[in-house]
Every structure is written in C-alpha cells, then in structure tokens.
Amino acid sequence: MGEPNATTGQRIVRLWLWLHLALVLVFLLAPIVAIAPLSFSAGSFLQYPLPGLSLRWYVDFFTSGFWLPALGNSMVVAIAATILATVLGTLAAIGLWLAPFPAKGIVTAALLAPMVVPIIVVAVGVYFAFAAAGIANSHFGLILAHTALGAPFVVVTVQATLAGFDRTLMRAGASLGAGPWTVFRRVMLPLVLPGVASGALFAFATSFDEVVVAFFLTGPGQRTLPRQMFAGINENISLTIAAAATMLVLMSVAMMAAVEYLRRRGERLRRGRA
User: Which of 35, 38, 115, 167 is the most buried (most CB within 10 A)?
Assistant: First the structure.
C-alpha cells in the first residue's frame, strides 16, 4: 500500500521498484511456467503450441519400472535423512544456545559448513570417505550424506526460534519440581516446534531434490528421482520428465506454504507468551 502523503518522486521510485520486482519474478518463474504445460502434451516432443492435451506422461510416470522405484528411493532416503537431521540439528541448536563456550563460533561454522561449501566438494569428500568405509552405493550412505546436508537448515531455524525464547520459563518449570526432560518436553519443545518443523521441511526438500551427491553415492538400485531425471535427459528426452518436474514444483510450493504457516504460528505463540 502506498503512503497517502508520498511525493511524486517517491511514487515514481516505488513504481520503479515494483517494476523491477515483477521483472525478477518473471525471470525466475518463466522456466517453471514453460515446463508445466508440456507435461500435459499429447505429443512426444518439447514443442509449442501443444498438439493436444493428455495425461499420458503422468500415467507413464506411475506405471514405469524406472520412475516409481526412483520415487520410492527418494522418499525413503528423504524421510530417513529428515528424521536424523531434525533430531541432530535440534539437539545441536539447543546445545549451542544453552552452553556458551569459547569455541562456539567455530563449532557453529562447522555445523553450517555444508550450506556454504560447494556441493561437488562435499560429494567428492563424502564419496572417498564412504567408499573407504564400505557404505558407498547404499541407501545407508546416501541417508547419512543427506543428513549432513539437511541438519544445518534445522540448526538455523531452531536457533532463530530460540532467539526469542524466554529462559525464565525453564527456570520456572524447574522451580515447580519438573526435571530437565519434563521442562524440555512441556515448556521448550511446544514453543520451538514451529522452528523444528520448518527445519525438517527444509531438510526434506534438500534431500529430495539433491542430485550431485546421489551421482557419487548411488548405484542402479539406489537411483533417486532427481538422478533418474538427470539420466533421462542425457539418455532419452521424454515428457515424463516434465510430469516429474511439475509434481516436484507442486510439492515445493506446498512445503513453502507449510513453512509460511509455521512461521506465522510461531509468531502468534511468541506474542501469546509475551
């Protein structure tokens, strides 16, 4: 909403900024908008205008002996990695928040390193480490690698939630006779749960969409959906890839909506406690 008393120059600057925002959104969303209609094409090629509308590529996805196993692998790995990343990331964030120590900055940087280190460097390092341990080309190895990639997101979101947490609530619970576990479960966890859930969603999305580490750590029996899509582009371009991409986009939109809901819920909880 514009300010009623804004000058002409301010209105022009605001309009200019909105125009730039619209251009950036078009630039970012154009590839997504372009690929989604192709998943409903009755043809067999990436072409516009569409020769007709059909659900054949979605039927092919859900009846294929290649795509469904890849989707199953992605779901298994993403769910397992999300559970591990959520537990470990939450405990790490709470530990850093409760126990200040001289090397806290270094430990925090080490925990967040997978977010900033180039993914190809992580993939090569993980491959050599896991190959020596004998867990390369296995679901277990991929789950561990994706846990390391997803945990930093949980640490960040939980730390952001804890920044507004009142420590006196924990002392009040302890003064009433509650033990540490009870205080954590009944006092802290309900208030930080939106941050934990948001971090878990980011960890799930990171694991489900990851392809570079999967290239190094998976064999034919562990192919994930993004890896199968990449292989499909190289081997035989099929509009089934467009159907898979459209479903991934819809899943991402749903998760972002869930994150926004959790953020607003967390704000309401903090305002209610204030």
Answer: 38
